[in-house]
Predict the structure.
Amino acid sequence: MLLDLVRWVHLLAASVWTGGLIVLAVLVVALRRAGADREYLRAAARAFGWASWTAMGVAIVTGILQVVLIPLPWAYGRLHLKIGLVALAVVLAFVHTLTARATGPALRGIIQLAILIVSLGIYGAAVLLR
């Protein structure tokens, strides 16, 4: 029962993180095409940042709980793959957060695409954990 709840929360948090990346990308493109002021783009990014970092934190905590509750051996190679991809997504997102104001739209877009690709890779790694 507890494991089912932890899995559900984990999947919900991961969906918010990855789904939010996709929604934010579409939203930013639409706002830019509509000529929205840069402050509107920043406001959308800040709101997403709060939700996405919360979701990532919840996903990490519930992921660790799942490893303990299942239990999976920490030495399991496929688990290392998923942990590595999560770490890479966190690092990329953190770098993006720190540099977003100082970089141009093209570089921000490249970093955001990299975060999305790595996040989708996390889903693939999760499927391999079975």
